[in-house]
Amino acid sequence: MLTPREIQVLQHISRGLSYAQVGTALGVSPNTVTSHIKNAYRKLDVHTAAAAVMRAVELQLLGRA
What we know:
Layout: H1 4-14, H2 19-26, H3 30-44, H4 49-58
Helix pairs in contact: 1-3, 1-4, 2-3, 3-4
């Protein structure tokens, strides 16, 4: 379903980090973070970061957010 990197990005988003902060933490650009988020939204069939995190938790992809 989600790639390991998409899961990492969602984990950081679930902690309240901005895309820029996620990019810094993972050593990638904010544009790369945006790409991962868009892919995760599509795969999870959601349209917001909150919905993506909630769906990933429901699917037990993030553990405890």
